[in-house]
Specification:
This protein starts with 93 loop residues before the first helix and ends with a helix. Helices cover 19% and strands 25% of the residues. It has 3 domains: 67 residues, no CATH class; 189 residues, Protein Transport Mog1p, Chain A; 166 residues, Protein Transport Mog1p, Chain A (3-Layer(aba) Sandwich), CATH 3.40.1000. The radius of gyration is 42 Å and the shape is elongated. A hairpin with a 5-residue loop joins strand 12 and strand 13. The chain is α+β, with helices and mostly antiparallel strands. The longest helix has 18 residues. The strands form 2 sheets. Strands 1-2-3-7-6-5-4-8 form an 8-stranded antiparallel beta sheet, with helices on both faces. Strands 9-10-11-15-14-13-12 form a 7-stranded antiparallel beta sheet, with helices on both faces.
Length: 513
């Protein structure tokens, strides 16, 4: 009997006469036949794995986890298996034909080897997405905003023997608990996102009374947050319209993407010291005010205490925050507004607990001076000039219109500036000889390398009335600072306090851009 005479297994429908028969038994098509729609019996659907049965030969999926180096093996074949499945080794017997008519489960490759073509790409895409979610920073949608603030455990090293109790403000009052800053809605040139400001206050539950206030502000993006950070740093650096005085500034590196700090003091009988820290990480800016009764809380310990929460900010904001933490005292506090000039926070009170210095730029220039300078202070040859004036408000003991005038001259170079400062100093020193009704007394000079001097000028304007002036002249690089105040014998700062003001004015002048 020839192969053509052999009976074929029965089918539900005969194949179309013009179509070749499907592949031989035991062989799987790589591509479906063109007339696949004519098949009455579709391929078997994939069977989902069972979670109860163990791994057994012939199962589509193993219920047990496979080793990492597992690879599928080809079906076992005997050594006498024919190499071409289309041609039998010998004519089949009738019993063989009956067996061939029955479903050949063992002879056909298990459908477990045949997975949907979309499955492998879908798994690959899912794995890539999982990796991106794990390693990509900035997944703020799954981060609780409160988790970005410091925790009590973070403050454990801030002061020995102190435990801290946190309190979250449901509706933060941005003017309470933070010195020298204004509410976010008043910040310029940018404002934080409305409703996105968080506030947490830590109070000491043991040891001397102490408080740490942290405020977290969010901005639309990192570029806007940079402007917000600069504005906040200028606020704490100048303490404008605040009764506090700025004592020192600090450089801070290795904390967030940029940071800065200042030390301020409440100018009252308690003289409580505060450390203010401003940090930016991505689109977030955090402000911290730490103070204690007795010994102050060190700014470097405060920066270390903030590292965990700032690290979470960096991750949430997609920021690059690297480098070891380093805190050092700077030559001057961060620049105020406008940069290069004294600010309200640079000026001491005359009466502890009373008065606030209010400053403003004066245009056009109107300074007359003490009358000893021998030059028009509003039109100095070879220099550009700018004037600021400060008035002390709220002190009941203050003399009428008690204030301070500041003139800042910029020359083409240090030599010209030094020559002008020397001329002013010489004319003030010789004023008593030139004007008998005027008495000038040198009251001290700044220690080297600073160059500056303080004078008291007394001018008799009637038999019973004397006009008193405090005049200060200093030079730094191409700039000359001229200061003049109008105290009375009953209402005045000490010589040391005025020299501190002159020193701060010279340091501020180096910040002029």
């Amino acid at each position: 009997m020839t192969d053509d005479a052999l009976p074929r297994p029965r089918r539900g429908l005969p194949p179309a006469e013009d179509a070749p028969a499907p592949g031989s038994r035991g062989r799987r098509w790589i591509e479906p036949p063109e007339d696949a729609e004519s098949f009455a019996v579709p391929p078997p659907a994939p069977v989902l794995p069972s979670g109860s049965a163990g791994a057994t030969p012939g199962r589509r999926f193993s219920a047990d986890d496979l080793p990492d180096d597992w690879a599928p093996r080809p079906p076992r074949r005997s050594a006498t298996s024919p190499s071409d499945l289309d041609t039998p080794a010998s004519p089949p017997s009738p019993s063989d034909r009956e067996a061939a008519a029955a479903p050949a489960v063992a002879a056909t490759p298990a459908p477990a080897e045949e997975r949907p073509r979309w499955l492998v790409p879908a798994i690959a895409v899912a794995l890539v997405a999982m990796v991106l979610l794990i390693v990509r920073p900035g997944a703020t949608a799954s981060v609780s905003p409160q988790s970005l603030l410091a925790e009590s455990a973070d403050l454990a090293g801030l002061r020995a023997g102190t435990t801290w109790t946190p309190t979250d403000d449901a509706a933060p009052d941005e003017t309470r608990g933070l010195r020298c800053v204004s509410p976010g809605a008043e910040l310029r040139p940018v404002t934080p996102l409305a409703g996105r400001t968080l506030r947490r206050t830590f109070t000491s539950a043991s040891g001397e009374p102490a408080t740490v206030v942290q405020q977290l502000e969010s901005y639309p993006d990192a570029a806007t947050a940079r402007q917000g950070f600069a504005a906040r740093l200028a606020q704490v650096g100048g303490c404008a319209a605040s009764p506090d005085r700025v004592l020192a500034g600090f450089t801070v590196t290795g904390l967030g993407e940029e940071a800065g700090a200042v030390r301020v003091v409440e100018q009252d009988a308690a003289a409580r010291v505060h450390h203010l820290l401003v940090v930016r990480a991505g689109p977030h800016v955090t402000l911290v005010d730490a103070h204690a009764d007795g010994a102050d809380l060190p700014v470097d310990a405060l920066a270390r205490a903030l590292q965990p929460s700032v690290g979470r900010l960096c991750q949430a904001g997609g920021a690059t925050c690297a480098g070891p933490l380093a805190v050092a005292e700077a030559d001057q506090p961060p620049a105020g507004v406008p940069a290069g000039f004294l600010t309200s926070g640079d000026l001491p009170r005359v009466t502890p607990g009373a008065g606030v210095w209010i400053g403003a730029q004066i245009e056009p220039l109107t300074l007359a001076g003490s009358g000893c300078e021998g030059v028009d202070l509003t039109a100095v040859p070879g220099a550009t000039a700018a004037q600021h004036a400060f008035i002390l408000k709220g002190d009941p003991n203050a003399s009428p219109n008690f204030g301070l005038d500041e003139m800042l001259y910029t020359f083409t170079g240090p030599a010209e500036a030094t020559a002008f400062a020397a001329t002013l100093t010489a004319r003030l020193t010789s004023c008593s000889a030139d004007k008998p009704a005027t008495e000038v007394a040198p009251k001290g000079a700044l220690p080297a390398p600073a160059v500056g001097q303080l004078f008291t000028v007394s001018q008799r304007i009637s038999l019973d009335k004397v006009a008193l002036s405090r005049v200060m002249v200093g030079v730094t690089g191409p700039r000359v600072v001229y200061l003049a105040a109008n105290p009375t014998p009953q209402f005045d700062l000490s010589d040391a306090a005025w020299l501190d003001v002159l020193d701060r004015a010279l340091r501020r002048a180096t910040q002029l851009t």
